[in-house]
Amino acid sequence: MESKRENFGGRLAVVMAMAGSAIGLGNIWRFPYLVGEHGGSVFIIVYVLATVFISLPVFVSEFVIGRRSRCNAASSFSRLSGGNRFWKSVGFLPVAIPLIIASYYSVIGGWSLEFLVKSLDMSITGSNPAAAEDIFDKFTSGGLMPVVMHLLFMGATVLIVAGGVKSGIEKFSKFIMPLLFVMIIVIAVYSVTLPGASEGVRYLVEPDFSAFTPRTAAYAMGQSFYSMSLGMGAIITYASYVSKKENMLASSVGTAVSDLTFAILAGFAIMPAVFAAGISPGTGPGLIFKSVPYIFATMAVELPVLSTVMSALFFLAVIVAAITSSISLVEVGVAFFVEKTRLGRRAACLLIFVLCGAAGSLCALDGQAFNLFDKVSSNFLLFLMALLAVVFVGFVMKREDVYDEFTNAGSLKLNAKVFPVLYFLIKWVAPLAVVLIFVTNFIL
Asked: Partner of 430 for a Cys bridge, out of 93, 107, 265, 390, CB 3.0 to 4.6 A?
């Protein structure tokens, strides 16, 4: 099986693909509104620390499991544990979780498609700044259009995945990730130059430690997990396509740095503009759909063409961010069906389209179903899977096997020096942190 298994073409391809998985709606949709709800820069500080000391060790754990097993996420625990019954039963989680998330991710992708269209026809960038909120509420309150847009988005996702690892995922990631960074930088530069944007910049860079609460820490750590695609099976699956010659530490750090950079850029793209318009930063999950178009609408009187271009560019960036994450989630299910059944890649993609299309349609029609999918996955399942991953690497796998995988059989000297600290974080710090997130979420 290993000789026939597809591989990424090199470190750049690995980082771009994994960054594509990590950089997505978690950064451009979720991160800004959580920053707004939980204290601004103090949230960002905890988020950065959580990424370095907790999320990165979890990421490496999933990387080790994936590359060591060289198989789909469902079979990886069983293979590395020698067929242990418990760990074999765990295998369904890293396949079920990403498909649940992909279902409602696609709904948000569909919303973004609708707002891209509305940007181009100037429905949300016309003379009425409040139009975007009305359009969003009406669009999401019922009817078939949210379902249609969701299915279009899911269709685009499976078409890319159907192309395979090198022809589909790798080529798309290499092209789209640099473009995504360029788009968000352009939007951020424009945002910080708006009149009154300085308040938003201060909100992001001047910490108010009186705003720190246990809930701030819990949400910051949770966002770090969500943003890095931890507990979703995506990193395990992608790592199984990584050559044994690649430097795991370099790829992991490269992905984490890319993810952090993009999240902070997204904050600067959105929050200064929100303050410039006098909108509350704590608007919530609808922030980018209800508030950001308002910003562009305010400039429509004097600069109608520029407002249309900026609005369209922003929602195109949201769509691109959503699809880079969605392809990694869909690939988990595709890899499972290809390896565990007689289905070919295209047939597996069609099956995933039917499954996620149906589940996502329910979310598109029913806000309660959407919230249920989101809360169950992001507040429970992701942390459960991440906890199982670090416990598996820290207590089930042999230390020498983890060392061998992390250092490429001892040939990477820097990795060998870093290993004792990283292994301590994996074995003791990360599990404790994940348990604390669980407890805090349930108490608060």
From this structure: 390
3-state helix, strand, coil in the chain (%, to 5): 80, 0, 20
pLDDT at res. 178? 81
Q: End-to-end CA distance of the chain, in Å?
A: 47
Distances (CA, A) of 123 to 141, 300, 396: 18, 11, 56
Q: SS3 for 91?
A: coil
- Which CATH number characterizes residue 343's domain? 1.10.4160.10
Domain for residue 3, yes or no? no
Tokens of 92: 């369904």
DSSP string, 147-177: HHHHHHHHHHHHHHHHT-IIIIIIHHHHHHH
The residue among 223, 213, 249, 236 whose CA lies nearest residue 383 is 223
Residue 257, in any domain of the structure: yes
Digit-coded pLDDT (tens) for 91-132: 999 999 999 999 999 999 999 999 999 988 888 876 565 677
Question: Is residue 349 in some structural domain?
Answer: yes
Domains in the chain, number: 1
